[in-house]
Amino acid sequence: MRAAIDGAKLEEPDLVALLECADHETDELLAAAGTLRDRAKGRDVTYSPKVFLPITNLCRDRCTYCTFRKDPGDPDAWTMNPTEIVDWSRRGRELGCLEALMCLGDKPERAFKQFRQTLNSLGANTTTEYVARACELALAEGLLPHTNAGVMTAEELSLLRPLNVSMGLMLENVSPRLRGRGQVHQHAPDKEPRVRLKMIEDAGRLEIPFTTGILIGIGENIVERAQSLLAIREMHARYGHIQEVIIQNFRAKPDTTMAGAPEPGALDMARTIATARLALGAEMNIQAPPNLSPADVELFLRAGINDFGGISPLTKDYVNPEAPWPHVARLAERCAQAGFRLKPRLAVYPEYIGERWLSPALIPLVEDLQRRIGADGQTEPERGAA
């Protein structure tokens, strides 16, 4: 811990030791991570006011913990049409949203003939082409797109780059073991770690501000968790494009294979957050979703986060529909009581605003929305909005 605070580069045995520290040592670990966070980020903690747009919930992967993905013919299968995208984007902007999160399943056109027909009826040949259209519609309504469309090729990333201020893909875990028989990703070809790492690397080569992270509690061991954090650090050292790292906890959901699996405890999450902070450094933006651990906001602040990710006043978390977003005013109160100030942010972090990282066509809207974020931590309402 002292070495990390002094700027030393921690390695795998160091991370394992931190992740395995005893409960009575955790306070010291959290204090070290908080000290490092305060050095670069101060006591401001951010969130992104967003509209969650589930462009399609069809997906070719079958992860054992997921309730988002559906097959064609399922009564809950859904692909948003352009009218819905425009309407939701407009309503979100009126409510002060700044981000349009494009979230969808992996490559459904490769698995389902019916979806290929749906895409053709929408004037697209591929899912990525349709996502590009959705981004155009959201931009026209004054929102900044952030696309998380699963694994994409460099060509697909290049297609979406001019229309997005940032993109994302959770690494989840770097271990190929989790793709083995009986493991969580056995039937999820897009969860192959080398495939996901390649996309993250392609995004770096293309200078795309990028969000990634790890998912804990899905059967990984401590060494694999440490290796996953180090893989993210290595990628960022090469390209400098990782704008944010999410530490996300598995939540058991009914009607899934892992419905009865144990969830990570609060201290396990806190130790992982703190270890990520010490491994990734003071400058990294580290997030933990508040709706997945509503009782632990203060603990995670102590552990070194400086961001809560997207929170929507309009749409639910379609990936975790059982977990409602916190009310922003109440979250701000809790942050204040813990000694922090909650502030809104854009889908692209300030250090990535510029022509190296963004299409020049996006910069005027980015700068305009940045100006609209009030010093009191509120976004300006639209003129005429209720």
Describe the structure.
This protein is an alpha/beta fold and 386 residues long. It has one domain: TIM Barrel. Helix content is 38%, strand content 14%. The chain contains 14 helices and nine strands. Strands 1, 2, 3, 4, 5, 6, 7, 8 and 9 form a nine-stranded parallel beta sheet that branches. Strand 1, helix 4 and strand 2 form a beta-alpha-beta unit. Helix 11 runs parallel beside helix 12. The chain is globular, with a radius of gyration of 20 Å. 47% of the residues are buried. The C terminus is likely disordered.
Provide a compact summary of the structure.
The protein has helices at residues 2-5, 12-19, 26-41, 82-94, 108-111, 113-121, 127-140, 154-160, 193-205, 222-239, 266-280, 297-303, 328-337, 363-372; strands at 44-56, 99-104, 144-148, 166-168, 210-216, 242-249, 286-287, 307-311, 341-344.
